[in-house]
Specification:
Elements lengths: L15 H16 L7 H14 L4 H16 L5 H18 L4 H13 L4 H14 L4 H13 L4
């Protein structure tokens, strides 16, 4: 044996979990760019991640937030985007009720689409209880407080 690894037997295929994780990271990059033009790329990345790993709560939560961005930016059929966001947020919470991003998505949905202020506040508070450093939860909770005249 020469001490060199036999690279011909090494696999270059990524596992489905790592591929889904990479797509979620890519989705967040697109979504957090703040660009209207990147939202559809975020939706595509998160959708692909949920197709690869249907049990990955973070992918569903990201998809919900991306669909909410689409709806609020009118980057598509906003009524359909709100419905898709709700389905994705509820799916994420069904998979992992400790997913702060899913709680934020549900809170945003309650605020922006269903105008259920109490439910929105509960979701934002739950997100912050799960992750006290969740910046987006604070931002959207602030939006709610502003809407209620309590800022």
């Amino acid at each position: 044996m020469n001490g060199f690894a036999n690279t011909s037997t090494a696999t270059t295929d990524a596992s489905p979990a790592s591929e889904a994780s990479e797509l979620v990271a890519r989705g967040w990059t697109h979504l957090r760019s703040g660009s209207f033009f990147e939202v559809s790329h975020a939706v595509s990345a998160f959708s692909a991640a949920t197709a690869i790993d249907p049990g990955y709560a973070a992918a569903h939560a990201g998809l919900a937030l991306a669909k909410l961005a689409q709806a609020t930016l009118r980057a598509g059929a906003h009524v359909e985007a709100f419905a898709d966001a709700k389905a994705a947020a509820l799916r994420a919470l069904a998979l992992d009720d400790q997913c702060a991003d899913a709680q934020v998505a549900l809170g945003q949905l309650m605020l922006l689409s269903e105008w259920d202020w109490l439910a929105a506040e509960r979701s934002f508070q739950r997100a912050l209880a799960i992750n006290p450093n969740h910046a987006e939860a604070y931002v959207h909770y602030g939006d709610l407080m502003e809407a209620l005249g309590e800022l």
